[in-house]
Amino acid sequence: MESVSHENRKFEPHPDFAKDAYIGSPEAYRELYEKSIADPEAFWAEAAEELDWFKKWDKVLDESEAPFFKWFPGAKTNLCYNCVDRHLKGPNRNKAALIWEGEPGDTRVLTYQDVHREVCKFANGLKQIGVKKGDRVAIYLPMIPELTLAVLACARIGAVHTVIFAGFSAESIRDRINDCGATCVITADGGWRRERVLSLKNTVDEALEGVDSVSNVVVVKRAHGDPFPCHYKEGRDHWYHRLVQDQPIDCPCEEMDAEDMLFLLYTSGTTGKPKGIIHTTAGYMLYTYLTTKYIFDLKPDDVFWCTADVGWITGHSYIVYGPMQNAATQIMYEGAPNTPDEGRFWEIVEKYRATIFYTAPTAIRAFMKWGDKWLEKHDLSSLRLLGTVGEPINPEAWIWYHKQVGAERCPIVDTWWQTETGGHMLTPIPGATATKPGCATVPFFGIEPAILTDEGEEVDAGILAIKKPWPGILRGIYGDPERFKDTYWCKWDGKYYFPGDGARRDKDGYIWILGRVDDVVNVSGHRIGTAELESVFVEHKDVAESAVVGVPHEIKGQGLIAFVTVIQGREHDDHLRKELVEMIDKSIGKFARPERILFSSDLPKTRSGKIMRRLLRDIAEGKELGNTTTLADPSVVEELQRQYEEA
Ligand code: ATP
Ligand code: MG
């Protein structure tokens, strides 16, 4: 592969930030990193001492059945204990754990003591209806405190949770429940989204038609049955408030083996049918604990806000498990970023004085599209660190984030990782790493990246690979060990983990993610990642977002089709097309001129907000569309199909 990027801006950590940071200099990072690579077992064992164990491990890493790695075999612990109980002993007992705001503006604050009580009651309620260690529990809830409580209650009793994002359809829920054989579903009568109530319970009822494994459904009253009165099935359904009302306020934690399954989570489905990723207890616990501490430089008085939904891995690792193990105070918000208006997020930052803000490039591009005026109305001076995750961030979006949100003061951590990796893998260390717009920079401790060809030769630009196992690594794909081996381990004969992304290393040794290997285009012999091409379009002042795909071309091998979204209120016409072509000519070269540029009001995205290039490719090639179950808004694709055929 080759790189066509000309991005070379660099931003040193602000001295005020670095001076108080856990890791405050490049030397401090290097020293710890080298230690973590020279003797990973010693490094992880030392870090593990910061957590609570019922019994210590016999060994740190067991590779005897690779790629089915075991971390901390012999140890016994409980993640809920480490997220909640251990904070009750000291000053954190009455600290706010969750500051929650509903979309209509209602609020709740739960201290760690409150969380402990509510989780114990919930856990006892689940036990009462027969949920046991090892049972799979599907959670289909809006972003309300009960979502976090449900996850922790499962972890407390050793039930395996599988959270399903509350925007998914009945069919998607059914597929997931059938795949893992869940016996219990936790849902709500509804949740607020864009001033409307999503009828979650009705969707669950529909999903459960013909499903035999589920014998209990717990229903949280959130939308008060109005305007969707919800059906109550005697014997199967239980109102949450009644179930927990008389439960004892204590519930012992199940002593879990290090490798007992903690949760199952289906990937976003950007590249195809979602995979049921398995994470287990001890390694995931330690990895989310340590990445949260160092990458967010999380301090006792921070107000942390990760805007993801708990339904994605980002929410598992950086709303529930990582921040709570670190006794963080965090903001949780139920609704849409543009309800009642496009300033909602900034209003929340101002209201609760958020200090750390972690979001996705898709959100950042939406904020840009909506315009700066929404930020200007609010005081964002409390912010001290920003983060992004989910997709490559275009340098122009990064610069906007840096200036408009971070006031050129806050470091930005561009965190590259996956559902499969459990936590951050490549990311700046905020007080130590000079950042570059659009670059995930350096590996976290214990992570040894390599950039390889298909044959396993090291190169500057090619396929990203990870050398050794780390504690947060997935332990399998539920029910399909062969697919697990094929997908992640066969590419280089088991020597490396294969994440499926392209990457390049620059002269400073920094790693840039170039996009997914499935999306790489080959134009006249140049193999180019989509991220860099798209970033050129986004540099134009009128462009908000862009997606580039390759289609077969007689002479070039592949020709480029560019889909471009313009900023609200700006013109999109042949003049803009001409300017965009000139930008490509100038920054890459004439060979990369797109065959066609299509303007659209939106792009097809997964429900987690990622661009689905494979569907754009299908549209451009006039093919039948592939798996569309994870698509957020099907009308976007229909519109593009129509436009494509007309143009
Ligand atoms: P599926 O595996 O089902 O196709 P998915 O890959 O979108 O879905 P996730 O685990 O949510 O599921 O996403 C991980 C992927 O997101 C990474 O492999 C990478 O392509 C992309 N990604 C995440 N963070 C970053 C980042 N900071 N920079 C670039 N890409 C990122
Ligand atoms: Mg993936």
Overview of this protein structure:
Mg(2+) binds at residues 538, 540, 543. Residues 532-610 form the AMP-binding enzyme C-terminal domain. One of its GO terms (molecular function) is ATP binding. Its EC number is 6.2.1.1. Helices cover 31% and strands 21% of the residues. The chain has 647 residues and is of the alpha/beta class. The chain has a domain at 524-646: ANL, C-terminal domain (GMP Synthetase, Chain A, domain 3, 2-Layer Sandwich). Helix 5 (112-128) packs across helix 6 (145-157), helix 10 packs across helix 11 (313-325) and helix 13 crosses helix 15 (395-405). It is globular and about 70 Å long. The relative contact order is 0.11. It binds adenosine-5'-triphosphate and magnesium ion (MG). Residues 267, 271, 418, 500 line the site of magnesium ion.
